[in-house]
Amino acid sequence: MVATEHFDAIIVGAGPAGSAAAYIMAKAGLNVVLIERGEFPGAKNIFGGVIYRKQLEDIIPEFWKEAPLERQVIEQRLWILSDQAGVTIGHRNEAFKEPNNCWTGLRVKFDQWFATKAEQAGSLNIYETVVIDVIREGEKVVGVRTDRDQGDLYANVVVVADGVNSLLGKALGVHREWSPNEVSLAVKEVIAMPKEKIMDRFNLEGNEGVTTEFVGNTMGMAGLGFLYTNQDTLSFGVGVMVSDLKKKRVKPYELLEGVKQHPMLRRLLQGGETKEYAGHLIPEGGFHSIPPLSGDGWMICGDAAQLVNFVHREGTNLAMTSGRFAAEAIIEAHETGDFSRVGLAGYDRRVKESFVHKDLKKYKGLHHFLSDSDPSLTFDKLPKALNEAAYQMLLVDGVPKSDKQKIAMRGVTQAAGGLMNMVKLGAQGWRAMNG
Amino acid sequence: MSSIAEKLYTIRYKVDETSHLIIKDQDVCLHCETKECQDFCPADVYHWMDKESMTSVAFENCIECGTCRIGCPTYNIEWVYPKGGHGITYKFG
Ligand SMILES: Cc1cc2nc3c(=O)[nH]c(=O)nc-3n(C[C@H](O)[C@H](O)[C@H](O)COP(=O)(O)OP(=O)(O)OC[C@H]3O[C@@H](n4cnc5c(N)ncnc54)[C@H](O)[C@@H]3O)c2cc1C
Ligand code: SF4
Ligand code: SF4
After folding, report:
1. Strand locations in A129-168, DSSP E?
2. A1 touches chain B (CB under 8 A)
3. What ipTM score was computed for the predicted complex, to two decimals?
4. Is B42 in the pocket of ligand 3 (CB under 6 A)?
5. Do B10 and A43 touch (CB under 8 A)?
6. CA of A50: how far to CAs of A46, A200, A308, B7, in Å?
């Protein structure tokens, strides 16, 4: 290993945050090294699978002409499920194609592509290497220690982009351990299915794709499921708050199998063959869990800094954007030669002025709303009552509609624990969603 | 319905000789009332063995999610990453 060399920047983690940072700095001519613990970038990573255009386009214009993407998303569905039924909402629009809004993707291909782009721009990429600690000189971070022999590396600045299990963030002392209600555990399967079948079942032409998210049917735990179409596979998964998982004593993969049996999902998954099982944490602490973003000789990006908008399942784009901001601030600092907290503050400023900060701020109350309110209400009783109400309204059985409406309303109100509670819940929910 | 064994079979691992997951104090597990690591781990890594009075750790199956690091109520699990290049390698992600 290049032990004695001194770099302009060391980036830990070749996820979207790290690769974005490495790419931009390398392109600007900085001498950077990108370190990844996996056999290759993406080896350790999973996600649901939606990649948004705008934030990656800001880094690599027209990336879609070369990036390994699955399908172009033209329809997004939200399903509110009870055990046997579902109320469905969705939007399909040809306008999502031009310009394209988002694609589905798979991390193993995507992360390798992105990290290779950084390498081609001049970044030195080192894989199969775990960074085990930061090296300090006084207060200042000056390098990293790796699990290789003679594996110490030195740089003006270390970019910590090591994801949700950020052991380095802890080593830096910038954040404490997450608590079980600040993270969700998602389990996922990639399910193979012939292309034609996927296109028939989801009503697709050519390269079009559909995303479906579902709430409810998670055994009363706060959580969300997803089903996304890829070229010849489906990405199917469900994530629930770790604190709820602990309370309910459910095995995550049994929850997944249970959800698969729902009649609306079972039909779509039927005949598919599971090619891969996976699990990963999602940071869901939101605005209040974001640690300080930079200090003397270091910066922290992406999941490691809790930069995830879980309401809109946006994470990769926030990670890439924070990686880009970190890189831009380092390029500035490179010109002045000041890598202290003050010299690197351009990163914090950029994040603060951007949609990253604004979006997370908008939902800042949601984390407390979800941890404080009874998840069995929001994620079980209300979805059930809503489905029952829809069922009653649509069932033609001789009961007058006005009576049905009363019964339906009563059912929903009862599920919420009375009218006052429902109003309170609605108001709290609204506040949580609107900062 | 596919079992956890079948699910784990879909994953490629490069197993290290030494465990990256260590129970800090088996005595703490003995007195742990919930033993919830047996349930929340998505890869069934932890098993309480009554006879031996200890938590066994099938680290070979670990999918490196990090849940046990945060989920064990007494933080009794020392959690680090497997050696570089070892552990789980996804094919799709
Ligand atoms: C189930 C699921 C569904 C999701 N769905 C979506 C979605 O549809 N759309 C979306 O935009 N986002 C989604 N997200 C969120 C998104 O995946 C993350 O926000 C994003 O990947 C964060 O990027 P990152 O670069 O910060 O971290 P990561 O992608 O986690 O990358 C961190 C990298 O660092 C490496 N690493 C860690 N520690 C070390 C170390 N010490 N030494 C060396 N290397 C190290 C890891 O191996 C990894 O490659 C989802 C997440 C999950 C889990
Ligand atoms: S939950 Fe923690 S303390 Fe309890 S048995 Fe498992 S590892 Fe031991
Ligand atoms: S990291 Fe995840 S898979 Fe590995 S032992 Fe802990 S809970 Fe189980």
Report:
1. 131-137, 140-146, 152-160
2. no
3. 0.97
4. yes
5. no
6. 11, 21, 13, 24
Region at B43 (left for phi over 0; alpha for psi -120 to 50; beta for the rest): alpha
Per-residue pLDDT of chain A (435 residues), as tens digits, is: 555 579 999 999 999 999 999 999 999 999 999 999 999 999 999 999 999 999 999 999 999 999 999 999 999 999 999 999 999 999 999 999 988 999 999 999 999 999 999 999 999 999 999 999 999 999 999 999 999 999 999 999 999 999 999 999 999 998 889 999 999 999 999 999 999 999 999 999 999 999 999 999 999 999 999 999 999 999 999 999 999 999 999 999 999 999 999 999 999 999 999 999 999 999 999 999 999 999 999 999 999 999 999 888 899 999 999 999 999 999 999 999 999 999 999 999 999 999 999 999 988 888 888 877 888 888 999 999 999 989 988 999 999 989 988 888 888 888 888 877 777 777 777 777 776
Q: Which domains does chain A have, with CATH numbers?
A: 6-68+106-178+286-361 (3.50.50.60), 183-283 (3.30.70), 366-433 (no CATH)
Residues 3-62 on B with a CB inside 8 Å of A are 4, 6-8, 10-11, 14, 34, 36, 39-40, 42-44
Token reading at A91: 């939007």
By Cβ distance, the residue of A179, A246, A275 closest to B36 is A246
CB A187 within 8 A of CB A257: no
The secondary element (H helix, E strand) that includes residue A54 is: helix A53-57
Q: CB of B29 closer than 6 A to ligand 2?
A: yes
> What is the pTM for the complete model shown?
0.95
